[in-house]
Amino acid sequence: MELDSAKGARQHGGMTDQIVRIRITLADTDPPIWRRVEMPVDASLKMLHDVIQGAMGWLDYHLWEFEAEDRRYGVLDPDWNDDRLLAAKNAKLRTLLDRGVRQLLYTYDMGDNWEHLIAIEEVETGQRGAQYPRYVDGERRAPPEDCGGTPGFEKFLDAIANPRHPEHKDACEWHHGCYGKAFDPDVIDERDAKLRIGAIAKRRAAGKASQAKKSP
């Protein structure tokens, strides 16, 4: 798994993206809740955050940050000086790869504390003509927002699975009221994930096209 920035990714006379295949696993879930995505190596950690949100089905309501090599990356707050927090929008995957980073920790919602294990599985040449980032696959639906972290999620699953559970009706009505549908822990909303991540890929492609037009 070597990254050769000088080599680029030339195929059949055209340029394609050099990409990283990433597995996202929600910590402390059994069976594991996970997603696999492909990201361009020039993507920032801010873009990776957006992709994780889309892949997992999170709604981006809460604070978040990455950790790698004892460094933290997130969104800087001008009203709160944190010298230990670096801007995620300025941190590129390529830079982390060049430093030998292959694993990161991503935490979403500091209250519920959803920790995601980010593993870089492969660095390779992308498919000619494909737009990145893109969703690949995964298993099991992620928890609903604001359900109380892992303990709350486990209680929620127990409640919706058992019609005789004293909180069954409330749990089902709460989720349906928030999301407009019943919660099935075994089914991923892959259409939503692909649409959300596809929108990011389209914006990136449009940005690259605009820059190319400006180049002499």
Automatic annotation (TrEMBL):
Signal peptide: none annotated. Pfam families: PRiA4_ORF3 (PF07929). Residues 18-190 form the Plasmid pRiA4b Orf3-like domain. PANTHER family: LEXA REPRESSOR-RELATED, TNPR PROTEIN. This is PRiA4b ORF-3-like protein. The lineage of its organism: Bacteria, Pseudomonadati, Pseudomonadota, Alphaproteobacteria, Sphingomonadales.
